[in-house]
Design brief:
The chain has 409 residues and is an alpha/beta fold. Strands 3, 4, 5, 6, 11, 12, 13, 14 and 15 form a 9-stranded mixed sheet that branches. Strands 1, 2, 7, 8, 9, 10, 16 and 17 form an 8-stranded mixed sheet that branches. Strand 16 and strand 17 form a beta hairpin. It is globular, with a radius of gyration of 21 Å. It holds the Pfam family DAO. Keywords: Oxidoreductase. One of its GO terms (molecular function) is oxidoreductase activity. InterPro entries: FAD-dep_OxRdtase (IPR006076), FAD/NAD-bd_sf (IPR036188).
Length: 409
């Protein structure tokens, strides 16, 4: 896929989109298909943020369970949010099929419990989804069943979500970019935004080598937007997550994951993993609560992997990478109208593969004046982080470090 040129000079558009990840690319694609003139700007390369550097897992539901949402937003909104989440999985599969995106899309997601008393809770939640929402794709797993599927002594049970799945995240992003370009969107990589002036007639976005005048601005940079908008900064924070890829495991691969599903566990700092088409284990583990990535990522991830798979303690790790993602205090996405001309959708807290493409579509609907679904997302409770922009990171580190310690107890 060829590079997209940097923006040089001044231009105009109906909509300017910031961020070449799933949200921004989906918004650009759906707007361009509807006849809007769209300019998308990315400070680096398409998919270079969280969208190209995640575990590729497709989860059911929102980031928080339905029982939490029922208490937080009421049963009607909780049901509407479940419907959106189901649509989000269908949209991913439709985009892959409709635009012939080669991203190794596969069905199946195992949610594994790392503490014995979590198993009954997982099974009860699967029953709640079945009885209340008609979702029958969650298969409860006892200890023997989870061990038959995942070759690790770390888990005591869980559920197998037949409606979940996994894909190659960067190839999915690149496929969305190609589809958006074919639809008419103008994409500019290596174009860093330096400011945005919101006026009565629209927004002027300045970059390091040009500017865009647009009627609407969609801020879709997720965890990489720090410093662009103070309101977003107080609600969205960036953390770094890491993945290591082992050498090809050959015949051993099926002893790690028997059915080629993706796996995520119940830790607060989640361990998540899947097999690549060439039989490598792609293992995500560990976080750092700062704005820059660690050095020597394979060495950082290895202990996390060895705790789950002690039989792989000495396996060669060929690659390691990290990504910056956005989180909120409640782990619910921050979707808001910042002004008459500026909309934002960010902070999927690890659930973005499924949710972000749909949320980009919903941003496109809002630009077109269709606000019902956008307003639903705007009602999600997402309070500001305590401490303001100065103390929010120290307070976050203290809180998240406590939960990380609790995982090990």
């Amino acid at each position: 896929m060829p590079d997209f040129p940097p923006l040089r000079g001044e231009t105009k558009a109906d909509v300017c989109v910031l961020g070449g990840g799933y949200t921004g690319l989906s918004a650009a694609l759906h707007l361009a298909e509807a006849g809007f003139d769209v300019v998308l700007l990315d400070a680096s390369k398409v998919g270079s943020g969280a969208s190209g550097r995640n575990g590729g897992q497709i989860h059911s539901g929102q980031r928080r369970h339905q029982d939490f949402l029922e208490a937080a937003v009421g049963r009607d909104d909780a049901r509407a949010l479940w419907t959106l989440a189901e649509e989000s999985k269908a949209l991913v599969r439709d985009l892959v099929k409709r635009h012939a995106i080669a991203c190794d899309l596969k069905d199946g997601l195992i949610l594994a419990d790392h503490k014995p008393h979590y198993v009954a809770e997982s099974h009860a939640y699967a029953a709640h989804l079945r009885d209340t929402y008609g979702y029958e794709a969650m298969e409860p797993l006892d200890r023997e069943q989870v061990h038959a599927l995942v070759g690790s002594p770390a888990y005591y049970g869980g559920v197998f979500d037949h409606g979940g799945g996994h894909l190659h995240p960067l190839n999915f992003a690149l496929g969305l970019a190609a589809a958006a370009q074919r639809a008419g969107a103008r994409i500019h990589e290596m174009t860093r935004v330096t400011g945005a002036i919101d006026g009565p007639q629209g927004v002027t976005v300045t970059t390091d080598a040009g500017s865009v005048k647009a009627s609407f601005l969609l801020e879709c940079g997720n965890g990489l937007m720090d410093g662009l908008n103070r309101q977003v900064d107080t609600h969205v924070m960036s953390i770094c997550n890491y993945i290591a890829a082992t050498e090809p495991l050959g015949a051993r691969a099926r002893s790690i994951i028997a059915n080629d599903a993706a796996v995520a566990d119940s830790k607060f700092v989640v361990s998540y993993f899947r097999l690549s088409p060439d039989g490598r284990l792609l293992f995500g583990g560990g976080e750092s609560y700062r704005r820059t990535l660690r050095d020597n990522i394979p060495a950082f991830v290895r202990p996390f992997m060895a705790r789950i798979f002690p039989q792989l303690a000495d396996v060669r790790i060929d690659y390691g990478w990290g990504g910056v993602l956005g989180i909120t205090l409640t782990r619910l996405p921050f979707v808001r109208r910042l002004s008459d001309h500026v909309l934002v959708s960010a902070a999927y807290s690890g659930h973005g593969v499924a949710l972000a493409p749909l949320f980009g579509k919903i941003l496109a609907e809002a630009v077109r004046g269709q606000l019902e679904r956008f307003d639903l997302l705007g009602r999600l409770p997402v309070p500001a982080f305590p401490g303001g922009t100065l103390l929010r990171y120290p307070l976050l580190v203290a809180g998240l470090s406590y939960y990380a310690l609790r995982d090990r107890l």
